[in-house]
Sequence to fold (154 residues):
Amino acid sequence: MTVTESTPVRTGTTNVCTAPPPPHPRPEGQDRYTISEVAAFTGLTAHTLRWYERIGLMPHIDRSHTGQRRFTNRDLDWLEFVGKLRLTGMPVAGMVRYAELVRQGEHTFDERQQLLEETRRDVRARIAELQDTLSVLDYKIDHYAGARRAPEGA
Fold:
Protein backbone atom coordinates (compact mmCIF):
# COMPACT_ATOMS: atom_id res chain seq x y z
CA MET A 1 0.00 0.00 0.00
CA THR A 2 1.49 3.30 -1.09
CA VAL A 3 0.42 6.30 0.91
CA THR A 4 3.02 8.86 -0.05
CA GLU A 5 3.01 10.79 -3.26
CA SER A 6 5.28 13.44 -4.68
CA THR A 7 4.02 16.93 -4.03
CA PRO A 8 5.35 19.28 -6.72
CA VAL A 9 4.73 22.98 -6.36
CA ARG A 10 2.82 24.67 -9.17
CA THR A 11 4.07 28.06 -10.27
CA GLY A 12 2.32 29.58 -13.23
CA THR A 13 1.82 26.83 -15.77
CA THR A 14 4.86 24.70 -14.97
CA ASN A 15 5.45 22.25 -12.19
CA VAL A 16 8.70 22.58 -10.32
CA CYS A 17 9.85 20.38 -7.52
CA THR A 18 10.38 21.95 -4.17
CA ALA A 19 13.73 21.68 -2.47
CA PRO A 20 14.34 18.09 -1.48
CA PRO A 21 12.81 17.23 1.85
CA PRO A 22 15.18 17.05 4.78
CA PRO A 23 16.83 13.67 5.06
CA HIS A 24 15.11 11.13 7.20
CA PRO A 25 16.59 10.63 10.66
CA ARG A 26 17.46 7.03 9.77
CA PRO A 27 18.20 5.32 6.46
CA GLU A 28 15.67 3.04 4.79
CA GLY A 29 15.73 -0.38 6.42
CA GLN A 30 16.71 1.06 9.81
CA ASP A 31 13.66 3.32 9.97
CA ARG A 32 11.75 2.03 12.97
CA TYR A 33 10.62 4.93 15.12
CA THR A 34 8.71 4.89 18.38
CA ILE A 35 5.69 7.09 18.82
CA SER A 36 7.67 9.43 21.08
CA GLU A 37 10.39 9.79 18.41
CA VAL A 38 7.77 10.58 15.76
CA ALA A 39 6.15 13.08 18.12
CA ALA A 40 9.53 14.78 18.57
CA PHE A 41 10.23 14.82 14.79
CA THR A 42 6.78 16.09 13.78
CA GLY A 43 5.70 18.27 16.68
CA LEU A 44 2.52 16.23 16.97
CA THR A 45 1.57 14.67 20.27
CA ALA A 46 1.47 10.93 20.80
CA HIS A 47 -2.26 11.36 21.45
CA THR A 48 -2.71 13.00 18.04
CA LEU A 49 -0.72 10.25 16.31
CA ARG A 50 -2.88 7.57 17.94
CA TRP A 51 -6.01 9.50 16.98
CA TYR A 52 -4.83 9.80 13.36
CA GLU A 53 -4.40 6.04 13.28
CA ARG A 54 -7.76 5.40 14.95
CA ILE A 55 -9.75 7.58 12.50
CA GLY A 56 -8.02 6.13 9.44
CA LEU A 57 -5.84 9.13 8.59
CA MET A 58 -2.70 7.04 9.06
CA PRO A 59 -2.10 3.75 7.30
CA HIS A 60 -1.66 0.64 9.37
CA ILE A 61 1.33 1.16 11.64
CA ASP A 62 3.52 -1.86 12.25
CA ARG A 63 3.93 -3.07 15.81
CA SER A 64 6.90 -4.53 17.62
CA HIS A 65 6.69 -7.94 19.28
CA THR A 66 5.65 -6.09 22.46
CA GLY A 67 2.87 -4.20 20.66
CA GLN A 68 4.61 -0.83 20.42
CA ARG A 69 4.00 1.17 17.28
CA ARG A 70 6.93 1.27 14.88
CA PHE A 71 6.73 4.10 12.35
CA THR A 72 8.77 4.21 9.13
CA ASN A 73 10.20 6.93 6.91
CA ARG A 74 7.15 6.45 4.69
CA ASP A 75 4.96 7.26 7.71
CA LEU A 76 7.01 10.41 8.38
CA ASP A 77 6.51 11.46 4.74
CA TRP A 78 2.77 10.85 5.02
CA LEU A 79 2.57 12.88 8.23
CA GLU A 80 4.39 15.74 6.49
CA PHE A 81 1.79 15.66 3.72
CA VAL A 82 -1.06 15.52 6.23
CA GLY A 83 0.47 18.58 7.89
CA LYS A 84 0.32 20.39 4.55
CA LEU A 85 -3.32 19.39 4.13
CA ARG A 86 -4.04 20.71 7.64
CA LEU A 87 -2.46 24.05 6.67
CA THR A 88 -4.84 24.30 3.72
CA GLY A 89 -7.76 24.23 6.13
CA MET A 90 -9.02 20.93 4.73
CA PRO A 91 -11.45 19.39 7.21
CA VAL A 92 -10.32 16.21 8.94
CA ALA A 93 -13.10 14.31 7.17
CA GLY A 94 -11.62 15.41 3.82
CA MET A 95 -8.15 14.28 4.86
CA VAL A 96 -9.51 10.91 5.98
CA ARG A 97 -11.39 10.59 2.68
CA TYR A 98 -8.18 11.32 0.78
CA ALA A 99 -6.30 8.70 2.83
CA GLU A 100 -9.04 6.15 2.09
CA LEU A 101 -8.77 6.90 -1.62
CA VAL A 102 -5.00 6.45 -1.54
CA ARG A 103 -5.40 3.07 0.15
CA GLN A 104 -7.95 2.01 -2.48
CA GLY A 105 -5.40 2.34 -5.25
CA GLU A 106 -4.72 3.96 -8.58
CA HIS A 107 -8.31 3.73 -9.82
CA THR A 108 -9.11 6.61 -7.43
CA PHE A 109 -6.69 9.09 -9.08
CA ASP A 110 -9.53 11.16 -10.58
CA GLU A 111 -11.35 11.48 -7.27
CA ARG A 112 -8.12 12.35 -5.44
CA GLN A 113 -7.30 14.95 -8.04
CA GLN A 114 -10.78 16.47 -7.72
CA LEU A 115 -10.45 16.65 -3.93
CA LEU A 116 -7.04 18.34 -4.20
CA GLU A 117 -8.28 20.76 -6.87
CA GLU A 118 -11.18 21.80 -4.62
CA THR A 119 -8.71 22.35 -1.80
CA ARG A 120 -6.45 24.37 -4.10
CA ARG A 121 -9.43 26.61 -5.04
CA ASP A 122 -10.11 27.17 -1.33
CA VAL A 123 -6.44 27.98 -0.67
CA ARG A 124 -6.33 30.43 -3.59
CA ALA A 125 -9.47 32.15 -2.29
CA ARG A 126 -7.89 32.45 1.16
CA ILE A 127 -4.68 33.82 -0.38
CA ALA A 128 -6.72 36.43 -2.27
CA GLU A 129 -8.46 37.43 0.97
CA LEU A 130 -5.11 37.70 2.73
CA GLN A 131 -3.65 39.75 -0.16
CA ASP A 132 -6.60 42.14 0.14
CA THR A 133 -6.07 42.36 3.89
CA LEU A 134 -2.36 42.98 3.36
CA SER A 135 -3.17 45.82 0.95
CA VAL A 136 -5.37 47.46 3.58
CA LEU A 137 -2.62 47.11 6.18
CA ASP A 138 -0.01 48.53 3.78
CA TYR A 139 -2.30 51.48 3.04
CA LYS A 140 -2.79 52.21 6.75
CA ILE A 141 0.92 51.85 7.51
CA ASP A 142 1.77 54.22 4.66
CA HIS A 143 -0.87 56.64 5.93
CA TYR A 144 0.62 56.73 9.43
CA ALA A 145 4.18 56.95 8.10
CA GLY A 146 3.14 59.87 5.90
CA ALA A 147 1.36 61.59 8.77
CA ARG A 148 4.56 61.54 10.84
CA ARG A 149 6.58 63.03 7.97
CA ALA A 150 4.14 65.89 7.31
CA PRO A 151 5.10 69.11 9.10
CA GLU A 152 2.77 70.15 11.87
CA GLY A 153 0.32 72.84 10.95
CA ALA A 154 0.64 72.15 7.24
The chain has a mean pLDDT of 87.
